[in-house]
Amino acid sequence: MSAPSYDVVVLGAGPAGYVCAIRAAQLGLKTAVVEKEFLGGVCLNLGCIPSKALLRNAEVIRTVRGGGKEFGFETGEVRIDYSAAVRRSRQVSGRMVKGVEFLLKKNAVDVYRGAARIAAAGRVEVGRTADGAQDELAARNIVVATGAQAASLPGMTPDGSRILTYREAIVQESLPSAAVIVGGGPIGLEFATLWNAYGVPVTIVEMLPRIAPLEDEDVSAELARAFARRGIQIRAGSRVRSIAISGESATVEIESDGGTESIAGGQVLLATGFRPNSAGLGLEALGVEIEKGRIAVDARMATNVPGIWAIGDVTGKLMLAHVGTAMGIACAENIAAPGSGAALDYDFLPRAIFSQPQAASFGWTEAQAAGRGFSVQTARFPFQANGKALGLGEYAGWVKLVADGKRGTLLGAHLVGPEVTELLPELTLAHRAGLTVPEIARNVHAHPTLSETLMEAAHGLDGGYIHL
Ligand SMILES: Cc1cc2nc3c(=O)[nH]c(=O)nc-3n(C[C@H](O)[C@H](O)[C@H](O)COP(=O)(O)OP(=O)(O)OC[C@H]3O[C@@H](n4cnc5c(N)ncnc54)[C@H](O)[C@@H]3O)c2cc1C
Fold it and tell me: Are 168 and 122 within one domain?
């Protein structure tokens, strides 16, 4: 029997791959997706979605435990069942995954379950998960969307019980007695928020001089202050030398300019970044260019080998779900009609940290913009001067705009505070549309809303803040 033949075969059904498949099918291309573990990828199953559900529990617990006096209620002893929080997050994840299954079916995308390998140009082999047999697919275009896996530190192998990656941490139904989180990036900060809200003593160890090291320095400082107020310990500028396991505890030895320190914890979470899943797919044999594990792509998402494309985390561009999704849409459009997919400017795509308070940003930091020779202007408007934030009782943080003093356009924005991840799209849209700061300031905002802080910050760059 001849192999089923497709215009597009996508390897991996994460937010990059499944979206690419749907868009390709919508554009009239006969499309299949091959997935070896779970539809929806890391994001829906073990990443973005379940973590945000857990963080919602953290918010509720923090309000119930700490907010009584401010909001005028008494609870007495609050009994915690963390396993219920995890079960809720699994249900949320499950609903989303079912939704992806439905969408693929609705768009007539064929789904193959198993590990895919490119056997030759235009030929994909699928080792079937269900019965161990093998399928072979003919593909005019192959899109690699196989994601990434947690990077481990030399000599510190995750064992799933004392030394964890996000994979175990997100599904375990018990809390660590104490946690050491290695890595002060988004995932480390989100788990720190979650476990701290549930009363777990947490220490974050970050090798670079500050947590959220890729964000504007002011953001790192504000987050560090907020975390310190909640009792989260931070060891920045510290390198992990070893992790020793003894019975129920793990001891992490760290080293900094100040000397060495041992921190005992029930569990250690390694949140030190990701390694693209580009090995073992048959790419090397075809001559696909791979740089340090990342599949190299051009602005169309094409690799150097005609007919082979790559999107999402496996390209190592900006390892975020919405970036993978945008790459997936552009890729499908470029396959259907060369040049029709929008090119992405990765520096100006949104970045988010769902810690409490949240952080959100796009574009260049103040230092990066200055380093590029712009005459930089900045304005910072605090949530303390925003009526909605005061009413919510969530007023830590601020909105900082970085603008080009000559042209009056935005070069970046850096936000810390309540629901700032929801505020960012207004600014990225303004940037995309080339709006100037006076135009942003004159976009009338409903009152009272958190989004008024954006308008106020723009006023700060254009004649002066009104409410400060
Ligand atoms: C705890 C956590 C929280 C996160 N929170 C956020 C967030 O809030 N916002 C955000 O934007 N990002 C977040 N991320 C990052 C986000 O999950 C990733 O950027 C996103 O999942 C990448 O999408 P992808 O489609 O490229 O890869 P993935 O989601 O990793 O999907 C790749 C898929 O390919 C499959 N696959 C791999 N190899 C093969 C093969 N040979 N054959 C067939 N299938 C294969 C895998 O099983 C997987 O399903 C988070 C990540 C983690 C771990």
Answer: no
Residues 9 and 141 reside in one and the same domain: yes
Domain of 454, CATH number, reads 3.30.390.30
Q: How far is ligand 1, taken at its centre, from the CA of residue 38, in Å? A: 10
How many domains in the chain? 3
Q: Which atom of ligand 1 is nearest to the CA of 322?
A: 11
Q: What is the tens place of the pLDDT at every residue in 320-353?
A: 999 999 999 999 999 999 999 999 999 999 999 9
Q: What is the C-alpha to C-alpha distance for residues 184 and 166, in angstroms, rounded to an integer?
A: 14
Q: Is the CB of 326 under 6 A from ligand 1?
A: no
pLDDT tens digits, 5-34: 999 999 999 999 999 999 999 999 999 999
pTM of the model: 0.97
Say if ligand 1 is within 6 A of residue 276 CB: no
Could you identify the atom of ligand 1 that is nearest to the CA of residue 41? Answer: 49
Residues 338 and 445 in one domain: no
Find the catalytic residue in 445, 447, 459, 467.
Answer: 447
User: What does the pLDDT read at residue 265?
Assistant: 87
Looking up residue 173, the CATH number of its domain turns out to be 3.50.50.60
Q: Is the CB of 37 under 6 A from ligand 1?
A: yes
CA-40 nearest atom, ligand 1: 49
Looking at residue 106, its amino acid is: K
Give the structural domain span for 246.
163-272
Is 447 tagged catalytic?
Answer: yes
| Residue 413 CA, ligand 1 centroid: distance in Å | 26
Nearest CA, atom 7, ligand 1: 48
